[in-house]
Design goal:
- It is a single chain.
- The protein has a 3-stranded antiparallel β-sheet. It has a two-stranded antiparallel ribbon with strand order 4-5.
- It is α+β, with helices and mostly antiparallel strands.
- The N and C termini lie far apart (about 50 Å).
- The chain folds into 2 domains: about 120 residues, Intergrase catalytic core (hpI Integrase, Chain A); about 55 residues, no CATH class.
- The chain contains 10 helices and 5 strands.
- The mean pLDDT is about 90.
- Strand 2 and strand 3 form a beta hairpin.
């Protein structure tokens, strides 16, 4: 999960990462979906993960198993607030288990604990959201592989308060560059 949160790669790409994709503290990988290359510098969290594993990447697992682990982590850290969303549910679980038949799934909409809706996609979305406003949008887009800013902005989950804080910080930096006071005084 740490690698996904810090690279913005799709699960299909970060699950196939191996040491051949890492050179000079940079991950270089061709996205399966788009065929575009991404270059992502290794940050401290990824470096620590590699160091902890003797220079090796975590073992690849299936996307389904990864999603199960994400839900377990979400529940363990208390992401239990109720939110609207949709999830896949098995509609013939008992029958499938007893009769040995294939399970049938359907998408169910409703209100669920947040952790039940968490999937591998949370890594990619969190990567984009956490960097948005901190580094130029085209830089993030070059890593996530989004072709248009409109498409990219559907990923960003910033609240109005968070957007206001970004603007506040911009004003402070601008004022500091110009040597101006950053607060307004009402007279």
């Amino acid at each position: 999960m740490i690698i996904g949160l810090n690279t913005g790669l799709r699960v299909s790409d970060f699950m196939r990462l191996d040491l051949s994709h890492i050179k000079d503290d940079t991950i270089r990988i061709k996205a399966q979906k788009t065929g575009k290359f991404a270059e992502i510098p290794i940050n401290n969290q990824i470096a620590h993960t590699l160091e902890k594993r003797g220079g090796n990447l975590p073992k690849a697992i299936s996307e389904q198993k990864f999603n199960e682990y994400i839900k377990e982590i979400g529940e363990a850290v208390g992401f239990s607030q109720k939110v609207r969303g949709a999830k896949m549910e098995c509609i013939n679980k008992k029958e499938a288990e007893t009769a040995g038949i294939e399970k049938v799934f359907r998408k169910v909409s409703g209100t669920f604990p947040k952790y039940e809706l968490m999937t591998s996609h949370i890594c990619r979305r969190s990567f984009a959201t956490n960097l948005y406003g901190e580094i130029p949008t085209p830089v993030i887009m070059s890593i996530t592989g989004h072709a248009t800013e409109t498409q990219f902005l559907t990923y960003i989950k910033k609240t109005n308060a968070e957007n206001a804080e970004v603007l506040r910080n911009f004003y402070k930096r601008s004022a500091e560059k110009k040597g101006l006071e950053t607060t307004l005084k009402v007279v």
